[in-house]
Amino acid sequence: MDESLVILEAKNMYHIYESLSLEGNVVALRGLNVRIKEGEAVAVIGPSGSGKSTLLKCLGGLMKPSSGSVSLGGREMIRMTGNELVKLRQETVSFIFQDSNLLPDLNALDNVAQPLRHQGVMPGPARAKAMELLEKLAMGDRWMGMPEQLSGGEQQRVAIARALITNPKLILADEPTGALDPITSREVLELFEKLHEEENVAFLLVTHNRDVAYFCERSLELRDGRFVAQHGTDFDMADLSETRELIIDETGTITLPPDLLLKLGGPGRFDVPDADRDSLKLERVEDERIEVSSKTKRVLAPICPACNHDYSDSTDQLCPECGSSRPMIQA
Ligand SMILES: Nc1ncnc2c1ncn2[C@@H]1O[C@H](COP(=O)(O)OP(=O)(O)O)[C@@H](O)[C@H]1O
Ligand SMILES: [Mg+2]
After folding, report:
1. 327 lines ligand 1 (CB under 6 A)
2. Distance from the alpha carbon of residue 139 to the mean position of ligand 1, in angstroms
3. Is 233 inside any structural domain?
């Protein structure tokens, strides 16, 4: 592939959260490889706690991965100084988070204009462009609103306008419609599709929402910090086994999704009676079966780690109070 067409590439990326707690360190990413071409839209899907947010932060240079390399627009981020990195990020990539992350002391217009101000654009032209974007997002008459006076959907539209104002070539979005009602979600998606189709903006979107994943050319399935499979445009979020293409990476590593591992009868050793180009057959060495159930069980956390909200019996994946995604913990 022509390297100039790759907007984002990560090689063998690991991330470990160091912790002094009893559970010890958390390995959130385990040797990921990703390559996104200019103008491509890719979704990342996977259960809570699988590493999606960590992946996005490492890819966008908000957090340094523990090891591995990330290059943005063909430039290796690890070798850059702080200032160079900030500049590259400003010129190439924008983030959209689930909670809009607006500056509480600025009104909608100045929040949107802020990235341009950071690039040294004068207030007049920066505000003019901000107003144009707010109008595009049907927020023109709300420009004076302070974040606390705006609804969740309105705040998210302001955050999206802010993300678009620098004309990014790549948008990294972490559950961008997670806090929106279905109608606003739909509007946001239509805008994304338009940017993707008409302005060749590339997207990497973390989502639980099937409509979001559908507008992407492919979806990567993340489990426990590894990409296990890729799906095309047409798939069922509730049953990923239908359209799954397993991924074997450059190191030869393959991770079986849990449902496939169960189907196979659990971990163990396998003979390889047939391995040809493009095809592999495995046969269990019968006396080597290891029961899957011996693996530690993970359950949804009972309390939100961010705001201490008590989930009690609910199966919510997102905290109703602060919007954080609900982690899995060991039972
Ligand atoms: N700041 C942190 N400190 C320690 N562990 C973290 C931190 N952030 C995330 N984790 C852990 O890393 C793993 C991946 O988290 P995350 O990337 O937020 O997953 P997702 O976005 O898919 O829900 C989880 O086990 C989570 O508990
Ligand atoms: Mg997350």
Report:
1. yes
2. 33
3. no
30 and 161 together in one domain: yes
Percent of the chain clearing pLDDT 90 (strictly above): 48
Q: Quick check: CB of 157 below 6 Å from ligand 1?
A: no
Distance of alpha carbon 279 from alpha carbon 131, whole angstroms? 56
Q: Which residues contact 171 (CB under 8 A, 6 or more apart)?
A: 93, 94, 95, 96, 163, 192, 195, 201, 202, 203, 204, 205
Mutate-to-test residue for ligand 1 from 13, 14, 15, 17, highest number of ligand atoms within 8 A of CB: 17
Range of the domain at 281: 265-293
Whether residues 137 and 31 share a domain: the answer is yes
Q: Is the pTM of this model over 0.85?
A: no
Q: In sequence order, which ranges of 152-280 are alpha helices (DSSP H)?
A: 152-164, 182-199, 210-214, 258-264
Tell me, yes or no, whether 194 and 269 share the same domain: no
Query: Looking at the structure, do residues 214 and 85 belong to the same domain, yes or no?
Result: yes
* Residue 167: its H or E element: none
pLDDT band at residue 128, thresholds of 50, 70 and 90?
very high
Residues 180 and 289 in one domain: no
User: What's the Rg (C-alpha) of the chain?
Assistant: 21
Rounded to the nearest 10 degrees, the angle between the axes of helix 152-164 and helix 182-199 is: 10
